[in-house]
Amino acid sequence: MPDQCYGLGQSQTTLSGVVKDAAGRPVIGATVVEKGTNNGTATDNAGRFTLSSRASSPRLVISSIGFAPQEVATGSGEISVSLAEATTSLGTVQVVGSRSQNRSVTDSPSPVDIIDLREVTTRTGQLDVNQLLQFVAPSFNSNRQTGSDGADHVDPASLRGLGPDQTLVLVNGKRQHQSALVNLFGSRGRGNTGTDLNVIPAASIERIEILRDGAAAQYGSDAIAGVINIVLKSSVKELTTSVNYGAYDAKYRFDDQKFDGGNFNANVNYGVGLGERGSFVNATLDFNQRQHTQRANVPSIDGLLRREYGDPQVSNASAYLNSKFAVDERTSVYVFGA
């Protein structure tokens, strides 16, 4: 009896089509996958594709970068797919372990940051303007230097590593005067006179705008490093008070003190409206007391002339005023300062 062979086969369906965008242009390299399987292909330079399937009426999923995925049913004729652009944008890249911040304003030719003082004060725990910007503003640098000329009282601050006198500081868009201290004896920015940002209480500031690029063509040579514009509060009938305290772990001291460098700050801000033309007076009272720190790990021996190596003890009380008086519809007189 001759051997008999039996074969069992299944026919395949060949699918073909074209993928275009909303403007009718071919989408090159779009992925075409049979739903629920690993069977797929990609479109050619004309946006066309050919795919073999064992299913009689498979469903295809078409996707491409920048377009929303689309699922289509197949029939007997050629498949024509029109992909719509994706409505969601790619997320911002944040580098882990970097102090670099994303730009607040992205549609300007130069990097501009807008810093909300109320938000960053809560987030950083810093109480003076220099240290606030040190923690949140890229390219801004301000370090306390113990025993370095007058840096214990006026911290030299700079942008992009340039001199303190090459950063222009504005208050409400008007130039803020520089300090009379010339940095000498090993301090940063030697031979420069910078602007003391800490004379302005953080409680009196609405926001800080930082231009992290040279603006000498617009403002002059003192804006080579950049521009810092401090916008003061202009709120009325709003009382704001704050009390803060912080300290450092003193585990590197020889004595039994557990904490040092205690920083106490109390402030109050209130504004009053005047008339019906937008005139106002906004005032801030601020008190800050910072205790010294000891970081040299030197024992406090009687007769040792210099025992404390660290941040000095500083007490500062200030009152700051921001006001505007409307003379007529087109003329206003402004007054601000400490």
TrEMBL record:
GO cellular component terms given for this protein: cell outer membrane
Stretches assigned to the TonB-dependent receptor plug domain: 105-227
Keyword DNA-binding: no
Membrane topology: Multi-pass membrane protein
InterPro entries linked: CarboxyPept-like_regulatory, Plug_dom, Plug_dom_sf, TonB-dep_rcpt-like
UniProt KW keywords: Cell outer membrane, Membrane, Receptor, Transmembrane, Transmembrane beta strand, Transport
Keyword Transport: yes
Location of this chain's protein in the cell: Cell outer membrane
Similarity comment text for this entry: Belongs to the TonB-dependent receptor family.
Protein known as: TonB-dependent receptor plug domain-containing protein
